[in-house]
Design brief:
single chain; about 120 residues; five-stranded antiparallel β-sheet; 3 helices; about 20% helix; CHP04076; TIGR04076 family protein
Length: about 120
């Protein structure tokens, strides 16, 4: 009987999945003096919970990246309609001279086995 319970627990564990959004962070605009080499339209993608990728031959500024990174785990999850993350998707680079504004876009969803997440 305990073997049946163990098998049922294993089956439930295999079925638990977490739905996360894949994201794209896009340079929406630069309102100041561009010094980092980014241009409007430059972007990176966040997929499969934690994989960041850039278009070949492009880069993304470390300081702009540091501004948006703390928001990405929350943006990957479904939120209530009234939550500010459901409507506010712009992030500013911390460089006051540059005033680079990025936009977080949801591009798809990933269903990931919960035990594969930390």
């Amino acid at each position: 009987m305990s073997e049946d319970r163990d098998m049922a627990a294993d089956t439930r564990a295999e079925q638990r999945r977490t739905e996360l959004y894949d994201l794209r962070v896009v340079v929406d605009r630069i309102e100041g003096r561009s010094v980092c080499g980014l241009r409007p339209g430059d972007h990176f993608d966040l997929t499969c919970s934690s994989r960041i990728s850039l278009p070949e031959g492009r880069h993304f500024c470390l300081y702009a990246l540091s501004a948006v990174l703390p928001l990405l785990p929350a943006a990957q999850r479904a939120v209530a309609a009234g939550d500010w993350l459901a409507t506010d998707n712009e992030v500013a680079c911390p460089d006051p001279e540059e005033r680079l504004i990025m936009r977080i876009e949801r591009t798809g969803t990933a269903s990931i086995p919960t035990e594969e997440l930390t």
